[in-house]
Amino acid sequence: MVALVVGLAVVAWAAFVLWRDRAQPTGVLPGSRPLAIVPPGPALVLSVDLARLRAAKAGQSLLGRGLTALQGDACEKILLHDVDELVLAIPSEQRLERASPDAFALIAAGRFLGQSAADCAERGIAARQGQPVRSTIGGFTSIRDRRRAGEVAARDGLLVVSDGEYLRELLDGAEGRRAEGSPEERERDRLHAELRRSFGRDAPFVLTLALPDGWLERVLGDRTAERSPLATLRSAALRAQIGADIELSGLVACDDPQRCEALERFLNDARRDLRTLLGPDAARALDGITLSRKDARLELSARLRAEDVTKLAPVDSARGPLRPAPNLAP
To answer: If phi over 0 gives left and psi between -120 and 50 gives alpha, with beta otherwise, what is residue 138?
Structure first.
């Protein structure tokens, strides 16, 4: 679970580009809330309140890691200063079968202009020897590389990274035409919403999972996958309250108490393997994770000090500690 969250966070910070324009909107614009435009029935939803992270000591360390991971020009480096909300969504396995196998959605809202964001994406593609193509989709300016999958669509205060049919559904949602979805998709939407309400508790970092029976077998295309302890996973949530320290709380719901016990053993074994793989600093963080089981439910908790986060996620040495974005106006 921890490895999954770290991986998602790095993807979320490094997967797209923005540019700070001289005349910026102030605050998130109406109709630009990322969670509201996610198409029905996703398997995974991760939301990050970057504005609140900037105000916390431990959050600044995490954002420093994001700046370090971004390898690009100035417009990419200023990303985290202008984005206030970030959502990563992965569709259910049924949608993955209809779309590209690596379908996902990355949605950012904040204080940037769509034209400037599109210009930056176009420059980034050209700098990587790609062939940028610009087009208009409704109220969005779209940029893609003619030779690769994936597309960036931007308007003032909102940026979306995805591809194909899933991207079109996201843009429809942003323009007030979100689909209702099937009964199964609406049920997963209700589960995500309830997990966020009852467990997420308005934390600045919330991840929720909602998975149907047989999900692992269909995703992997392997009938033997059903024997994996991971196959028992039906829903999960992780929240992080971030202040001087980071307090992590997790919840995993299984389909059977006995299989949940097997999943507990699997996660403990994975933790031991990660201790060896990731080194002493990460090992101390992993040792601080408490995992407990009750019937068909697993709960985990951990506390990371800001000093530990700094060791695990150092700031960019060329930039120094995270600081307010420069004023680019003359």
So the answer is: left
- Buried b / exposed e across 215-230, counting CB within 10 Å, b at 16+? bbbbbeeeeebeebbe
CA distances from 203 to 72, 237, 246, 290 (A): 30, 12, 11, 20
Which structure tokens are listed for 221? 């295309």
User: What is the CA angle 164-169-174, rounded to 5?
Assistant: 125
93 — alpha (psi -120 to 50), left (phi > 0) or beta?
alpha
β partners of residue 47: 87, 206
Give burial (CB, 10 Å; 0-12/13-18/19+) of 285.
buried
CA distance 70 to 48: 17
Q: What value, to the nearest 5°, has the Cα angle with vertex 19 and ends 17 and 145?
A: 40
* pLDDT tens digit sequence for 288-301: 889 999 999 999 99
Taking only the tens place, the pLDDT of each residue in 259-280 is 899 999 999 998 888 888 877 7
- Give the pairing of strands 105-110 and 83-90: antiparallel
pLDDT of amino acid 158: 94
Residue 161 neighbours by CB distance under 10 Å: 21
Per-residue burial over 95-131, b = 16 or more CB atoms within 10 Å of its CB, e = otherwise: bbeebeeebbbbbbbbbbbbebbbbbbbbbbeeeeee
The whole-angstrom separation of Cα 250 and Cα 299 is 5
3-state helix, strand, coil in the chain (%, to 5): 45, 25, 30
